[in-house]
Amino acid sequence: MGRYLLRRLINHVALVLIAASLTYFLAAISLNPRANFAGRNPPVAASSVTATLNDYNLNPDTPVVVRFAHWANGVAHGDLGRTVTGGEVNDEFARRVGVSTRLLLIATILGSIGGVLVGAWGAIRQYRTSDRVTTLASFFVLAMPVFVIAVTFKLWAIDINDAVGHKVIEYTGEYDPGLTGTGEILLSRLQHLLLPSLTLIVIQVALYSRYQRSTMLDVLGSDFLRTARAKGLSRRAALMKHGLRTAVLPVVPLLVYNVVLLFTGATFTEKIYGWHGMGEWLVNSISTNDVNAVAAVGMFTAFVVLIAGLLSDVLYAALDPRVRVR
Amino acid sequence: MAVQTPSVQPPSQAPAAPGDQPARRRASGRLRLTAVRFSRNRMALFGLVMLVLLFLMAYVSPLFYKWDYTELDFTAFQKPPSGEHWFGTDQTGSDLFALTARGMQKSLVIGILTGLICTFVAAAVGAGAGYFGGWTDRSLMWVVDLLLVMPSFLIIAVLSPLFQGTTWLVFVVLLAAFSWMITGRVVRSMTLTLKDREFVKAAKYMGVPAPVIIFRHILPSMASMLIIDGTIQVGAAIIGETSLSYFGFGVQSPDVSLGTVIATGTPAAPSFPWLFYFPAGCLVLICLSIAFIGDGLRDALDPNSSGAKARAPRTAKSTSTEGRTS
């Protein structure tokens, strides 16, 4: 088991390194940072543009391999390079991971719990109205691209704000920078958190409840649950202690996998609600031809996939005795 | 696993046809049975009718609708829906119904093409890896792992400047290139079990070349899975296409897709909500009807795989590709 895991780990790390390098190559070939300086007023001299780009290791005229070597050397020493505006990618990276964490923490917890509960509830009440409604609702949500959900929520929030007369629900940014006083800042943060969290929660509940419902349905027909009832447990106790606990196990690794992936996956939510997190960086770095930032996001995404995969494998082994024994 | 005795099985769950019947009769009987089962599923039937109507709207309605999607009506700017302009007009006086129909044409074509290519690649690679085994298997699965780690959204977005000004077919290829891996893995594991079956061995010892065995004996045996998966991939591709196009990374400007129509409508949507709700509503209806059809096909073709068994392990790792970027 140990050697198997180690071999997989080495293989995965190699994959991440290759994925990151490929991302860098593609970004370096495809994006043109020089375009950022075109159309400036007053116009910037070509020589000074070249000098700046050389400085940041972004000059498209330098052979890609040379740029890559420079970049890879920096990454090996923990330096992700400079952004197209001259900042350190490292600083931006740290800031954005913080923003994404603050956005995702509450949303993923509530979304996971909600998904498990809704799914289990639907399974227990299979084919009744409540089950049909939740199933239909989750189909509906999953059929919507995230940007449609996010924009719809935003439009509703605007309508509600108009109806109330002042801004109750905020829909841009993380907080209001003009405020002072702990209470006010906290309230403002909560106001800003509401819509993006709601978007993420709705999506997660819809997704996870589908899995939870089907695993729960499998468990409901099982012999051990009948035994539990036969030995005199109440329906409720049997369902909670024997049913749900067993049915949650296969869903947990999946949940963890998805939650970890959200770190760069919350692109649309962050972009539409103006949160400056990792997901927004993904879109912005491409539109500003920011090669080093794109490479950083790409590497982080590959890394996150790796962590998510390993974590869900380990959890699977830890939670399911049958896997552990093998 | 509980062993099911035939007497407990409800009649609808009985296998499609006993294996010892003549092949011709089994095929036609199977088809009819599938059709009957499908039409008994009200949601699936609703999805099919809906999708046909949407296809008619996209391809037939422009033939007799008064406005062309390139025409501008200088007497109607930002006008709400009316008899003259069914979905209203935007700030330049373009008719939104004509634009939406045009966008749907492209989105539907992209979705179907991507679904087809992706299913074909998954079938060919998965079956090849499973059938030949050894180094073929190892290297192909390594490619699958690598593509799974690569951030697909980021890569396609990064490459978008390169296919600007070329054809949108490049975009289709890219979308397909990043969505076949999970299906490929499933095909591979199904091939591994089919490889040892008598009919495959018989063909092999009679000297039938490997490609023929794969395409004539192995892949038809998993046709139902491929059909179901292909349907789901079409929906996923449409969501992926519109999401990328929404940020300007997908379909480029002379072409119109639902994503670009929604993206141009969104900024003005708070004051002129029809610019967002109509095209977004059409998009949701397309994806919803495809999801219903896929679900109905699963029930009809593969009645023993109750959601969980067929889906949970597969989607456990699919999320990175499936593009559930929130």
TrEMBL record, chain A:
<dbReference type="GO" id="GO:0005886">
    <property type="term" value="C:plasma membrane"/>
</dbReference>
<comment type="similarity">
    <text>Belongs to the binding-protein-dependent transport system permease family.</text>
</comment>
<feature type="transmembrane region" description="Helical">
    <location>
        <begin position="293"/>
        <end position="319"/>
    </location>
</feature>
<feature type="transmembrane region" description="Helical">
    <location>
        <begin position="136"/>
        <end position="158"/>
    </location>
</feature>
<keyword id="KW-1133">Transmembrane helix</keyword>
<feature type="domain" description="ABC transmembrane type-1">
    <location>
        <begin position="97"/>
        <end position="312"/>
    </location>
</feature>
<protein>
    <submittedName>
        <fullName>Peptide/nickel transport system permease protein</fullName>
    </submittedName>
</protein>
<dbReference type="Pfam" id="PF00528">
    <property type="entry name" value="BPD_transp_1"/>
</dbReference>
<feature type="transmembrane region" description="Helical">
    <location>
        <begin position="244"/>
        <end position="268"/>
    </location>
</feature>
<dbReference type="InterPro" id="IPR035906">
    <property type="entry name" value="MetI-like_sf"/>
</dbReference>
<feature type="transmembrane region" description="Helical">
    <location>
        <begin position="103"/>
        <end position="124"/>
    </location>
</feature>
<dbReference type="InterPro" id="IPR000515">
    <property type="entry name" value="MetI-like"/>
</dbReference>
<feature type="transmembrane region" description="Helical">
    <location>
        <begin position="190"/>
        <end position="208"/>
    </location>
</feature>
<keyword id="KW-0472">Membrane</keyword>
<keyword id="KW-1003">Cell membrane</keyword>
<keyword id="KW-0813">Transport</keyword>
<feature type="transmembrane region" description="Helical">
    <location>
        <begin position="12"/>
        <end position="31"/>
    </location>
</feature>
<keyword id="KW-0812">Transmembrane</keyword>
<dbReference type="GO" id="GO:0055085">
    <property type="term" value="P:transmembrane transport"/>
</dbReference>
From TrEMBL, chain B:
<dbReference type="GO" id="GO:0055085">
    <property type="term" value="P:transmembrane transport"/>
</dbReference>
<feature type="region of interest" description="Disordered">
    <location>
        <begin position="303"/>
        <end position="326"/>
    </location>
</feature>
<keyword id="KW-0813">Transport</keyword>
<dbReference type="Pfam" id="PF12911">
    <property type="entry name" value="OppC_N"/>
</dbReference>
<dbReference type="GO" id="GO:0015031">
    <property type="term" value="P:protein transport"/>
</dbReference>
<dbReference type="Pfam" id="PF00528">
    <property type="entry name" value="BPD_transp_1"/>
</dbReference>
<feature type="region of interest" description="Disordered">
    <location>
        <begin position="1"/>
        <end position="26"/>
    </location>
</feature>
<comment type="similarity">
    <text>Belongs to the binding-protein-dependent transport system permease family. OppBC subfamily.</text>
</comment>
<feature type="domain" description="ABC transmembrane type-1">
    <location>
        <begin position="104"/>
        <end position="294"/>
    </location>
</feature>
<dbReference type="GO" id="GO:0015833">
    <property type="term" value="P:peptide transport"/>
</dbReference>
<feature type="transmembrane region" description="Helical">
    <location>
        <begin position="43"/>
        <end position="65"/>
    </location>
</feature>
<feature type="transmembrane region" description="Helical">
    <location>
        <begin position="140"/>
        <end position="162"/>
    </location>
</feature>
<keyword id="KW-0472">Membrane</keyword>
<keyword id="KW-1133">Transmembrane helix</keyword>
<dbReference type="InterPro" id="IPR050366">
    <property type="entry name" value="BP-dependent_transpt_permease"/>
</dbReference>
<feature type="transmembrane region" description="Helical">
    <location>
        <begin position="108"/>
        <end position="133"/>
    </location>
</feature>
<keyword id="KW-1003">Cell membrane</keyword>
<keyword id="KW-0812">Transmembrane</keyword>
<keyword id="KW-0653">Protein transport</keyword>
<protein>
    <recommendedName>
        <fullName>Oligopeptide transport system permease protein OppC</fullName>
    </recommendedName>
</protein>
<feature type="transmembrane region" description="Helical">
    <location>
        <begin position="274"/>
        <end position="293"/>
    </location>
</feature>
<dbReference type="GO" id="GO:0005886">
    <property type="term" value="C:plasma membrane"/>
</dbReference>
